[in-house]
Design goal:
4 copies of one chain form a homotetramer.
Chain A lengths: L5 H17 L9 E8 L2 E6 L13 E4 L5 E3 L8 H10 L4 E5 L2 H9 L5 E5 L16 E7 L5 H14 L5 E4 L3 E6 L2 H22 L2 H4 L2
Parallel strand pairs in A: 7-8
Antiparallel strand pairs in A: 1-2, 1-5, 2-3, 3-4, 5-9, 6-7, 8-9
Helix pairs in contact in A: 2-4, 3-5
């Protein structure tokens, strides 16, 4: 992505953020969005903290290095920048999206005891990177929420190495993280996982299904 | 907020009202919105009564004093102006929003017997003013609805002093009130509480959860 | 409404129809909308049959007399014009809206055996014409669907005289009719009744509520 | 449809695709859309594979012959082109739409064991081609999903001849196919079937209904 002009990256991320807000996935200043600007030196652009995502614009992003130190931009980077940095490193993700939807919040609670959930047999899964058939079992880890970002990032790091095939994970009572090697792929993963979480949550709301 | 030009306040409130209508939170002339114009002398701008919030514009607001007497503007102020005045006084709120969503209506009935509900453990709560962690228990009072606005305002006044930490309350079978020291904060509180009410209502719709 | 210029009436009705389509209340050519142009002589403007309501424009309306005979316009008037004419006469309605929403369809089936449902205790009911308090019991009749429009219109006529206070009714497995003395009032009634039907349907989806 | 100018066909299909995306029926590159350009020689225009349907434009379509061989356009035709070709042939469909909605996915699983579901007694069914009354029983087949498109197309072919009256079918865990002799009819069928699937799914979520 070195050839992408910087401002285009932030324009695309801001547009994605506003669209997540419009879908109810990033209300009340929740949600954060990042992309790798360059790998050498490592530079990540990430949303500043505390913003209304319905009014997210390109100058609401900051550029940080691999340690999260601010290189450029105004305000504080999102408190969850440490999580983005882990994903950029261990998954080689170039785009990382974090949303708080109603269904991801609900399903994260329903599946907290099992530390995750299987999503299986759906055609929609084929849109996930590397998946070739609906005959696929996707494990979506659920990780306990934590305000200590260093500790949380290290728990996530461990979970990611235990589940090397996972395309995302849920933070309990909090929301979804997903990523991709490009913005387009991360957006696809986001839509697919949010879709599947809605399918899972609504299916559990059907008594004949959930009582079996 | 004394430095904000008056017309900008009403422009922002009208925009917020139309956006609430578009989300289904202020259908059929329901909902009302206010903001403090100045504290000394006390002036509140508030929606006129009986308006279609899908067509709410700046000249649909009236300015009233601390007693609710009209200082400026056409039409009658919202019947619930007395409630707005209580909130402006006892919570020092500078923006006060009242919405009628499907989920706030449903949850207000589900929690009427307990006179409120606890919302606990959700990251989204961190967006409420003064909350620093998802390890937070938010009490959302449910107050019996009443057409006698003087009596209702005094019941609300008492409930607010019993629950000094509350960021909003529900009127039973009626809807949500929330507020903030700025328009931005009140909007954030509104989105967060409506989000949480949807999470609570949908979680209660899942048999394995609600039967436990 | 004699002073309203004709074309404005159809412009407003077409806008309302497109907005109902956008909300999912008039999909697949369903739904029809009318307004009284004049009382003496009696002229009603009503949607032509078989139209995509997402593309409803003013020239998609026809004008008919009190017997439903076409006075002006292209195409056939909606098959349900006879129902509109009954409402214009016995309720003195000047605007009549018929929608097919998911929740009105579901609730009409749930309440078919009782030939209707009570909606009670909700603040939103205060927006219905003549209702002054949430302490109100609104009976929403459910009438069996029928393809014989003359017979259906006469069953509706009888139901309306049995329930002189009703602000609307459901056709079973079909949808909602509501009306008002003005377009604004009919729109308000539509939003309020659709809101209440969603509240009723979702409340019934909550096991602890529906099993009691 | 020979008289329709080619580019208009793709403009209309692209618009429909974007509108399906906006409704959540074609997220994450899912969904595909086609129309017959001419019958003699047979030419079908169909979406290229792997596209974000929120950004579907006329040049994202390819033209293929009756065997699926590309005649014109960039990229690969949708993997499911074989299914479109069967429908164009055995149903004489001139427009074929395939969507992945939450409700079609859920209902396809609920009705998989019975290989389909009856939808009966709803006024909305009258909008299906050839249906004259709500007193109609529509069988919507559910076909097992398969990544082998030749095999899947032949199973679909057989199912279509067993159910000559069907206006659509579900692929299990995958989504809906529907069609029409014109784009307008296919769009109507799509909206009607998606509406009915939502009604069916939500009705099954109501305990008193689903427990009976």
């Amino acid at each position: 992505m070195n050839t992408v002009r910087t401002s285009e990256l932030e324009i695309s991320l801001a547009e994605l953020g506003r669209s997540c807000y419009a879908r109810g996935w990033a209300l009340g200043t929740s949600g954060n969005f990042s992309a790798v600007v360059s790998r050498d030196p490592f530079v990540l652009t990430v949303t500043a903290t505390g913003l209304d995502k319905g009014r997210l614009f390109p100058d609401h992003f900051l550029r940080v290095d691999a340690k999260g130190k601010v290189l450029e931009g105004l305000g504080q980077p999102s408190a969850e920048t440490a999580v983005h940095l882990v994903l950029a490193e261990v998954r080689q993700a170039n785009a990382i999206f974090h949303t708080h939807s109603v269904w991801s919040t609900i399903v994260s609670e329903l599946s907290a005891r099992e530390h995750g959930l299987w999503i299986e047999g759906y055609e929609m899964l084929k849109g996930l990177d590397g998946v070739r058939s609906h005959v696929h079992r996707e494990w979506l880890p659920v990780i306990e929420n934590d305000q200590d970002m260093t500790r949380l990032a290290s728990v996530i790091d461990r979970s990611l190495s235990e589940h090397p095939e996972a395309h995302g994970f849920l933070l309990r009572g909090h929301g979804l993280y997903t990523w991709g090697t490009t913005l387009e792929m991360a957006k696809r993963h986001l839509e697919i996982l949010e879709f599947m979480l809605e399918v899972v949550g609504r299916t559990r709301s059907i008594p004949s299904t959930s009582c079996l």
